[in-house]
């Protein structure tokens, strides 16, 4: 046993493991686009459900999560079979999501309108099933990092490889969706979902398989906390005490919520349809170019965030680049306030009569949006590797290795704010008197500019301010994490050599 511990001192991941395991987040981000970006539009326009019902239900279903997440987290923390702790949840979760969404998008439109009550029931039931599958798989992204590597200089790399995974999942879906809309059917048509669904599910399955390969070698007891397979079983009732005393996790949940809320609302399909289609009048000519511009600007910021995280810790990196996003979006806000319907010099323009036509308004928008988007997109998933730090801190604080509950707690916040975006958008649109969620073909109507300004700029800016406030008191700096990892390793070695958990916790400290 002693040799095993010495061998894994300074547990580090191999390069292929760092590259492949983050693809698990890409696999679930496929459904971020496939479900959370379109579920309200599908329910409202395809199934003819009430606009507020379709939007509010997405958030209301998170009450259901409040009961399922701790249970799934407890199951994960107690799991230790031949297939490991995390891999079973990745496989089962992906299967559940695939089956529920196939049924939702490809079968429920066939329910006749005379059976509207059945449509409502199917919509709610299938969405609830999907939520369970999403929790199964997405919580592994957070929890699995605790076994992948304990090296503080490697964990920031997860962010950049996670971005590659997100582009392989979310990016592919965002790229294909408008192409399918233009060549097959509109977002309001059932045919759009029948084409997009099998593509998305296939991409998600491939990414899941690659992620399983990435964590395969590390998904075994010798990497589980300081007690290995001798760790005590944590009861669900103890989770309240854990969260009460784990201040870094509480602060990270607020920061994660802020970053995710900013991303989910500002990139919501309805918001972008109103901005590029209804206001600027050229959705097809603006959506893809602006998305590509955002991704191009993101590349240097991902490199900068990793460099900053490795030198000064992930907290410093998150604070710095969220601040950059906040400053840039003040400029975007000013430009949207200057927008005027029918005035070319105050609208986005790339082409006019088949030739290039870029005005000063467009140049300024590209720069401010590009830098701001690049900064906040690079930080949107930064809290994910920080969950592993909070989990290691919990092991350091209490001796308990509970990556499952830590992952599902963060996953719950992630899903709450993601689904909250659909509710916020639905309520905002209904306030200005629109009966169905706008699509690219919806004409501009009074009040849309104000809605876009609030949803595209002000809400994300408020979320970033909350992030900055929460992270100010976050104690897990880069140096602090190095000390924590060293203490955890010394305790693990002592326990492997016969010392009790209680004595190791009492006698081995900073």
UniProtKB/TrEMBL annotation:
Keywords on record: Membrane, Sugar transport, Transmembrane, Transmembrane helix, Transport
GO process annotations (BP): carbohydrate transport
Keyword Membrane applies: yes
Annotated GO CC locations: plasma membrane
Pfam families per record: MFS_2
Signal peptide (UniProt feature, chain positions): none
Keyword Transmembrane helix: yes
GO molecular function, one term: symporter activity
Entry's transmembrane regions: 30-54, 89-111, 117-136, 157-180, 192-216, 252-279, 285-306, 318-338, 358-376, 416-438, 450-475
Name the UniProt record assigns to this protein: Sugar transporter GPH family
Organism, as annotated: Butyrivibrio proteoclasticus (strain ATCC 51982 / DSM 14932 / B316) (Clostridium proteoclasticum)
């Amino acid at each position: 046993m002693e040799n095993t511990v010495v061998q894994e001192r300074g547990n580090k991941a191999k390069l292929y493991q760092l590259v492949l395991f983050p693809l698990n987040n890409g696999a679930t981000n496929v459904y971020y686009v496939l479900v959370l970006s379109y579920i309200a539009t599908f329910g409202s326009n395809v199934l003819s459900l009430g606009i507020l019902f379709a939007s509010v239900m997405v958030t209301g279903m998170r009450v259901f999560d409040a009961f399922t997440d701790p249970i799934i987290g407890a199951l994960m923390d107690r799991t230790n079979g031949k297939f490991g702790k995390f891999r079973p949840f990745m496989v089962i979760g992906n299967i559940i999501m695939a089956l529920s969404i196939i049924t939702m998008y490809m079968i429920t439109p066939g329910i006749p309108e005379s059976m509207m009550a059945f449509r409502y029931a199917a919509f709610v039931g299938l969405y609830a099933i999907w939520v369970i599958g999403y929790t199964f798989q997405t919580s592994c992204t957070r929890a699995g990092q605790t076994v992948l590597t304990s090296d503080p200089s490697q964990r920031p790399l997860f962010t950049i490889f996670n971005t590659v995974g997100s582009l392989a999942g979310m990016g592919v879906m965002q790229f294909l969706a408008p192409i399918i809309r233009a060549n097959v059917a509109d977002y309001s048509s059932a045919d759009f979902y029948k084409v997009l669904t099998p593509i998305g599910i296939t991409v998600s399955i491939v990414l899941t398989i690659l992620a399983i390969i990435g964590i395969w070698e590390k998904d075994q007891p010798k990497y589980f906390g300081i007690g290995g397979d001798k760790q005590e079983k944590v009861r669900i009732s103890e989770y309240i005490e854990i969260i009460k005393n784990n201040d870094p996790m509480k602060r990270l949940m607020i920061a994660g919520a802020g970053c995710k809320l900013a991303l989910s609302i500002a990139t919501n399909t309805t918001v972008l349809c109103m901005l590029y289609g209804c206001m600027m009048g050229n959705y097809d000519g603006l959506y893809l170019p602006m998305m590509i511009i955002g991704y191009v600007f993101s590349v240097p910021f991902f490199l900068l965030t990793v460099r900053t995280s490795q030198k000064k810790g992930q907290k410093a990196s998150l604070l710095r680049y969220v601040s950059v996003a906040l400053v840039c979006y003040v400029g975007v806000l000013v430009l949207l306030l200057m927008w005027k319907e029918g005035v070319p010099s105050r609208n986005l323009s790339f082409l006019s009569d088949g030739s290039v036509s870029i005005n000063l308004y467009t140049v300024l928008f590209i720069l401010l949006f590009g830098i701001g988007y690049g900064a906040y997109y690079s930080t949107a998933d930064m809290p994910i590797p920080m969950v592993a730090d909070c989990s290691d801190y919990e092991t350091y604080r209490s001796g308990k290795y509970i990556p499952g509950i830590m992952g599902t707690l963060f996953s719950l916040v992630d899903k709450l704010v993601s689904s909250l975006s659909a509710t916020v958008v639905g309520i905002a649109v209904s306030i200005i008197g629109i009966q169905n969620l706008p699509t690219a073909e919806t004409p501009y109507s009074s009040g849309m500019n104000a809605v876009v300004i609030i949803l595209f700029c002000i809400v994300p800016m408020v979320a970033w301010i909350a992030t900055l406030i929460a992270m100010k008191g976050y104690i897990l700096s880069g140096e602090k994490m190095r000390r924590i990892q060293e203490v955890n390793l010394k305790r693990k070695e002592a326990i492997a050599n016969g010392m009790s958990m209680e004595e190791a916790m009492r006698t081995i400290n900073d």
